[in-house]
Amino acid sequence: MKGNVIVGQSGGPTAAINSSLAGVYRTAMDRGAKKVYGMLNGIQGLMEEKYIDLSEHIKSELDAELLKRTPSAYLGSCRYKLPGIHENTDVYDQIFEILQKLDIEAFIYIGGNDSMDTIKKLSDYAIITGSEIRFIGCPKTIDNDLALTDHTPGYGSAAKYIGTCVKEVIRDSFCLRYDKGVVTIVEIMGRNAGWLTGASALAKGEDCSGPDMIYLPELPFDFEKFKNKVAKLLEKKSSVVVAVSEGIQTADGKYVCEYGTSIDFVDAFGHKQLSGTASYLSSYIAGELGCKTRAIELSTLQRAASHLASRVDILEAYQVGGAAVKAADEGDSGKMVVIVRQSDDPYQSATEVKDVHKIANDEKLVPREWMNKDGDYVTQEFISYVRPLIQGDVSPVMVDGIPRHLYKPEEL
After folding, report:
1. 78 domain-assigned
2. Does residue 323 fall inside a structural domain?
3. pLDDT exceeds 80 at position 272
4. What ranges make up the beta strands (E) of 223-265?
5. Which residues are catalytic?
6. What is the rounded average pLDDT of the residues 10-14?
């Protein structure tokens, strides 16, 4: 590489996103980049000319290893929607002026669907203006809903955490006895795609029966059927555990969480903030059946639990970061790195690049055939798909009994 590289992180963070950042930094330096800049808070921060020289923060191999094990987005993130390239050219002129001033050769953006929309628009504007800057997307999302890639970095670690937590919740649910039984409802992230909630089935094994029901947002939710199924289960067992996606909706398109509270916050991409699904269903079942209920919302813990990260996930996240730099260095632009699964046993994968125009603003949903006939559990095909992605551990660097992370001094 002859010029400089700039990298940003966007959207919701994951336990593996910083491993991709480490992969970008190391590969860019190995390929001869003069500097690797990091946007502070993504494209939004770049427009305010907020960025750092990563060499001043990653000063040793220990720093790089700590970065791989650090949750959240080290550079800071954003949810900023660029206008259409013909709607407001001033925004793009401002961005490209900053990139030219920094002598940027490659622009790498680590993120999900909305981030790939940013890469698509910037690469299109580069073509229109004749800019030689290359724009590459690096996949990241615990939601696992990016098209054309087998899976996304961040998903494996989140799935591992969910499977573990649900198993522990199930164990706890049998601790106390109640006359009419107890129903525990675990709310898991997932607006339109149920990849995360389906991972709760990983709790099932020789020592655990797994959750009793799993509800994904791909299928409409029926209150009456749900209540009847819970009632039948309580006739046979003292404890029922149900995993639900935060985004499950009734047949008329209304989110279940909206039955409990109104949703006021909507982000720049038009996404409603979803919360309270488990709470509402817990109250509903308690009112209908008169049994003890609990609501558990895993919330941001699903994407922040780096202490339970999957080794496969961390390694692949690092690899896609490096692959993004390699693609840009070899002349690609308007592309996203994808993971190609080569085999399940032993698990092997490779990276390729695909046209970001075929990825941005699309969503990969759980196939209907990976859910059972009643729509309240996942099939063995789903479990076989996700299990290889949670394998292996990445031990945190422990200091005084607590994991050590890489941090920026201004954060303290």
Report:
1. yes
2. yes
3. no
4. 239-245
5. 143
6. 95
Domain boundary among 335, 361, 387: 361
For 105-136, write each residue's pLDDT tens digit.
999 999 999 999 999 999 999 999 999 999 99
Spatial CA neighbour of 199 closest among 113, 287, 313, 307: 313
| Same-domain pairing of 281 and 344 | no
Q: Which helix or strand (DSSP H or E) is residue 106 part of?
A: strand 104-111
| Residues 60, 88: Cα–Cα separation, whole Å | 42
The encoded tokens of residue 377 equal 């559990």
Residue-by-residue DSSP string for 143-196 = T---TTSS--TTHHHHHHHHHHHHHHHHHHHTSS--TT-EEEEEEE--SS--HH
Q: What is the C-alpha to C-alpha distance for residues 411 and 97, in angstroms, rounded to an integer?
A: 29
Place of tokens 């996930």: 313
Number of domains in the chain: 2
- For residues 150 and 8, membership in a common domain is answered with yes
Q: Are 134 and 106 in contact (CB under 8 A)?
A: yes
234, 285: one domain: yes
Contact 142, 42 (CB under 8 A): no
pTM reported for the whole predicted model: 0.95
Instruction: Please state the rounded mean pLDDT for residues 245-255.
Output: 96
Whether residue 269 is predicted with pLDDT greater than 90 in this model: the reply is no
How far is 58 from 64, CA to CA, in rounded Å? 6
The Cα 30–Cα 390 span in angstroms is 29
Q: Domain check: are 16 and 82 in the same one? A: yes
Q: Is the predicted pLDDT of residue 408 greater than 90, yes or no?
A: no
Is the pLDDT at 143 greater than 90? The verdict is: yes
65-74, 82-91, 240-249, 401-410: lowest mean pLDDT where? 401-410
Are 204 and 147 within one domain?
no
Domain that holds residue 192: 159-302
Give strand pairing partners of 138. 110
> Of 361, 379, 394, at which residue does a domain stop?
361
* Residue 245 and residue 138 share a domain: no
Whether residue 209 is found in the same domain as residue 285: yes
Kindly give the pairing relationship between strand 4-9 and strand 335-344: unpaired
| Confidence label for 204 from pLDDT (cuts 50, 70 and 90) | very high
State residue 409's pLDDT score: 73
| Assigned token pair, 160 | 């591992």
How many residues are listed for the chain in this entry?
412
Q: Are residues 357 and 254 in the same domain?
A: no
CATH number of the domain encompassing residue 145:
3.40.50.450
What is the pLDDT confidence band of residue 13, given thresholds at 50, 70 and 90? very high
